[in-house]
Structures are given as structure tokens and as C-alpha cells.
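We include the pair:
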Amino acid sequence: MVEPVKGSGDVVHGPSTGRSDFHTGLAYAGGMAEHYRYDVEILHLLVSPAHAYFGRARDGAADVPTFDAETAEVVAGKGIMGDRFFGKAAHMDAAVTLFAVEALETMAAELEAGPFDPLATRRNVILRGAHLAPLLGQDFALESGDSVVEFHGGRPAHPCAWMNEVLAPGAHAAMRGRGGIRCRTLSSGSLHRGPAVLVSPVPLDPGQAGVPSLLRPSRLP
């Protein structure tokens, strides 16, 4: 018998047979024996059609359209409609970045700087209450509004040196191990700012959302 995880919602046993049964079982392909539900909040949804950080940081970021959307439309296998990674073959397995705002808040305290603008990180989905590192290599979902969007945690979203310029000196190093995760989109749907539920196949500890994790090497273009 699996007991409820401390700080989480219900542990749900047994796979579901369809999306309409998502709240009582697992909807995404294959299912699994149990999963864990966590109340989180989607604070920001960044959608931008172009890259802002390239070239020399001292020259400043590019002036590109950047939207903090109320709703973001997600397409399976492609990412967020209108975003710079949408439908790009090189980024199919990591088209959407998720980031815990607690990491940014902890960094600001450590660096005695800030508060930092979460949108400056250029991560797509800024969450509160989400312990993301254990989701690497896992299929999971975000429920928001009346929609469910399923993801696969592909690889860490490592920070770039631009963080020293747009956040504070030392932010690049401080963000290592807590820069979020890059995900493949497994289903189409909508993400909505506001209260949401993170559905995980593994237990998470929301209290660790801002703590650095030792992650395998990768690179965020």
C-alpha cells in the first residue's frame, strides 16, 4: 500500500482508460501503478518568437517581442505555439522549459540582490511549488483550467552566462543545478496562469524546489 506523500495531494492507484478519467487515474500513454498530485501555481507563461540572448552579453539583449501570456497553446511534439522553439527539429525533445520560482528567490537571497524578474530567465513556464529535478526522464502532466498537458522531462535547462547580466553578478553560477527542466510535449492542450495541479509518477518534495540538484551535463542553446 502506497501512503500519501507528505505535502502532496492524493496518491492515485491504477491507470485510467481515457482523458476524462484523469483525476482518478493516469491518462497518458501506458499508465502506471500510482501517481502523485501536487497543488502548484503557474505564475508566468513566457512566449517569444525569437531568441533574446546571443552574441556578447555586454552589448545587451536583443529587443524581441516577449509575452507573459494568460494562456499558452501547446501542440504535441512541437511545443508552445508562437514560441521560438516551436516545431524546431533540434528542440523537439526539449521544446518547453519549466522553472521553479523558488530557485530564483533563493538565488536572490544568496546573492543579496533582487528581487529578480522571472521572465528574465527566458523559461516558458514559471511555477510555484514544483519540485522539478526528479521529473527528468519521467512522463508527467500539468492540469490547469479545464485542460491537461502531458510532458516528458528531457534534460536540465542549464543557465547561460547572460544570467550575470540580466539578473546579477554571480547568478550564472548560482543558477546551476536549479535552472529548471526542458521537456518534450506529449499531448496538445492549454496551459493557464493560476492554480494548477502537477501530476507526477514519482514522489516530490515541494520544499526542495529552490535547492540545487546534481544534474547530468547538458547545454541550453
Notes: Residues 1-8, 13-30, 216-221 have pLDDT under 50 and may be disordered. The domain at 38-208 is CATH 2.40.33.20 (M1 Pyruvate Kinase; Domain 3). The two ends are 43 Å apart (CA to CA). The CA atoms of residues 87 and 93 lie 10 Å apart.
